[in-house]
Design brief:
about 425 residues, alpha/beta, 22 strands, globular
Length: about 425
């Protein structure tokens, strides 16, 4: 197909200005790159707030934003302002969340290998802990002996249901580094130990069946598995975790947060669960809210092979294609309605042949060196998973709303690369 970029892949506040350029939140992408340079992450703040509000309404018993998808103080504050809690999974994420003003009751602390220092910090902040192993229970017992704090906890259960995009696999015994397995009997042992422990207050269960789940009914599988534990132990909360998928390329469809919540609630009711049902959306809140802007630096034609289009970013600002083979679309913000009749491979500037951003990108035929190229749906796991490979500087991030672009993460400069380098001549 050679049609223009599908509009449903763009942020909610995407529009076209009088000059034909795409705008986000009333801000011209051309103007933004003049002010902030490229690569550049542009988030639609209206889109972010709308998805946060949808999550709060869809899960009235509690929803936490999964900060691993994208975190900075501005994003944390926005989520908190809209009524979400924050799901963090490291001392670093905890530090940013606290710096944004989060309180203990607004924090849920995850991780399959929490250090003693991390547990101490999370407990001191008053966060809910998602307990992941017997070793962690041992550490919590030891910490309790020191300070007598009794944190609220959820026990993470691995239900043996694994969902990835359009497929799911049931396993007799889940093969995962996360949680307590049901088939092995560890789930029952962990719940019994937690409920009898004076070191913690066991309030419920947590589960997570995978990422990029497109079929909301897959969550029925997991709810059915854990329902007997919730009923037998009369637990107060069941967190369904996150994992709801989003559309990245033309032709993909995904449930809305509302549709996902409806499927989960129906499954809980059918399973006889009266506990409050909570969730931790991340990707579904931020992914489609942003796009990344690049400048085309080189176009290399290899006759009878392919055309390489090199941009000024790459795997350092979006490692998902390299890690997972993830697909993306590409288009020119100067011509959002143009047919994309030319097939090229969009690559980055890193010293890796695998530094691919879009394997088979459809772009307008008149793409040229110096053009701005955009990849949509990059709001999740781009900046948060980025790196300084080849000592490339991390991009800036702006939030756009009502014609105003607010810098929330500045572009790194060369001196930033030396901040932790303590060797001196």
């Amino acid at each position: 197909m050679s049609r223009p970029i599908p509009w449903n892949l763009l942020p909610d506040a995407a529009a076209v200005g009088d000059d034909g350029w795409l705008t986000i939140g009333g801000c011209s992408l051309q103007d933004l790159t003049h002010e902030f340079g490229t690569p550049l992450f542009v988030y639609d703040e209206t889109h972010l707030r709308a998805r946060c509000r949808e999550a709060v309404q869809a899960f009235p018993d509690g929803a936490a934003y999964a900060t691993k998808a994208f975190l900075c103080r501005a994003m944390a504050r926005l989520a908190l302002e809209e009524g979400l809690r924050l799901d963090v999974a490291s001392s670093g994420e905890l530090h940013v969340a606290l710096a944004a003003g989060a309180t203990g009751e607004q924090l849920v602390f995850h991780g399959n290998n929490k250090s003693v220092d991390e547990l101490r910090a999370a407990r001191g902040a008053g966060a809910t802990l998602v307990v992941d192993s017997f070793d962690e229970l041992d550490r919590l017992d030891a910490l309790h002996d020191d300070d007598r704090l009794t944190p609220r906890v959820l026990i993470r259960i691995t239900p043996g249901v694994e969902a990835h995009t359009h497929e799911f696999i049931r396993t007799g015994q889940a093969d995962s580094k996360f949680g307590f397995g049901v088939a092995s009997g560890d789930a029952s042992k962990a719940i019994e130990r937690a409920r009898s422990s004076a070191s913690i207050a066991c309030d419920g269960l947590h589960l997570h069946i995978g990422s990029q789940v497109f079929i909301a009914d897959f969550f029925h599988q997991a709810v059915d598995v854990v329902a007997p534990f919730v009923r037998e132990f009369d637990l107060n909360e069941l967190s369904i975790g996150g994992g709801l998928g989003v559309a990245y390329v033309d032709g993909e469809e995904a449930p809305t947060i509302t549709q996902w919540a409806r499927a989960v609630r129906e499954a809980a009711v059918a399973a006889g669960i009266s506990a409050r049902v909570t969730a931790e959306p991340g990707r579904s809140i931020v992914a489609a809210a942003a796009l990344t802007l690049y400048t085309v630096g080189t176009i290399k034609e290899l006759p009878d092979i392919r055309t390489y289009v090199s941009v000024d970013g790459g795997m350092s600002d979006n490692p998902r294609p390299v890690l997972y083979g993830s697909g993306y679309e590409a288009f020119l913000p100067r011509a959002p309605f143009a047919d994309r009749t030319r097939v090229v491979r969009v690559v980055g500037k890193h010293c890796e042949s695998g530094d691919i951003l879009v394997r088979e990108a459809q772009v307008p035929a008149d793409l040229t060196v110096g053009d701005l190229l955009a990849t949509p749906v990059t709001g999740a796991y781009g900046h948060s998973m980025g790196s300084n490979y080849n000592k490339i500087l991390r991009p800036a991030v702006v939030f756009a709303v009502a014609g105003d672009a607010r810098l929330v993460i500045r572009r790194e400069n060369l001196d930033d690369l030396l901040l932790n380098d303590v060797d001196k001549p």
